[in-house]
Amino acid sequence: MGPPSSSRRLVVVGTVDVSPLGDDDGLNTDGLSYTVGDATAPARSGPAIIAHVCNDVGAWGRGFVHALSGRWPDPEREYRRWHRERASNDFALGAVQLVRVEDDLWVANMIGQHGVRRARGGPPPVRYAAIGEALETLAELAEEHSATVHMPRIGSGLAGGRWTDIEPLIQARLMFRGVDTTVYDLPT
């Protein structure tokens, strides 16, 4: 599927069924729910989107993506295809690829990381503006599909970002629009 006609960059893979939104019973701090658990197995009742940050060089295999690939092959396969065919699609920082993995569950591959490691003396791979742009698209998708959003602490692992800079982006792009969002931390 090619780029949409609007200025938003989005690729949707698979068909979409829209079901009623379920209640979110997680602990809520400043409008954002935090829980201990596995973001690849979100606690939900109704449609949901698992969101995570990808790099812009086509690399997949470390961090949260490893857990995704352990559950479903399609997010990795579609991300690699999207990157491979980037000359003819919208693959770039800030773009989102939505991949259906179950009847009412999708994975959002969000391009918010430039490269895979910090250049000597340079900034970390995280790109806050790209994450913000991707979250804006994610909010539209969540509203369109009446879906809750579930994620690890995006951009603050291998991408090298600070959660104190990423959390406000989630607040402004998702919470402001009323999108129920849960952030998952692994048990210690």
Question: What's the quick description here?
Answer:
This protein is an alpha/beta fold and 188 residues long. 25% of the residues lie in helices and 24% in strands. It has one domain (10-185): Leucine Aminopeptidase, subunit E, domain 1 (3-Layer(aba) Sandwich).
Show the helix and strand layout:
Blueprint (H helix, E strand, L loop, with lengths): L9 E4 L13 E3 L2 E5 L11 E8 L8 H8 L2 H11 L11 E7 L2 E9 L14 H17 L3 E4 L11 H11 L7 E5 L3
Parallel strand pairs: 1-5, 3-8, 4-6, 4-7, 7-8
Antiparallel strand pairs: 2-3, 5-6
Helix pairs in contact: 3-4
CATH homologous superfamily heading? Leucine Aminopeptidase, subunit E, domain 1
Summarize the biggest pleated sheet: 8 strands, mixed
The gross shape turns out to be globular
> How many β-strand stretches?
8
The largest sheet has its strands arranged as: 1-5-6-4-7-8-3-2
**Class from secondary-structure proportions:** alpha/beta
SSE sequence, one letter per element = EEEEHHEEHEHE
Number of domains: 1
How would you sum up this structure, described in words?
The chain has 188 residues and is of the alpha/beta class. It has a single domain (10-185), classed as Leucine Aminopeptidase, subunit E, domain 1. 25% of the residues lie in helices and 24% in strands. The protein is built from 4 helices and 8 strands. The chain has helices at 64-71, 74-84, 128-144, 163-173, and strands at 10-13, 27-29, 32-36, 48-55, 96-102, 105-113, 148-151, 181-185. An 8-stranded mixed sheet has the order 1-5-6-4-7-8-3-2, sandwiched between helices. Helix 3 (128-144) runs parallel beside helix 4 (163-173). The relative contact order is 0.23.
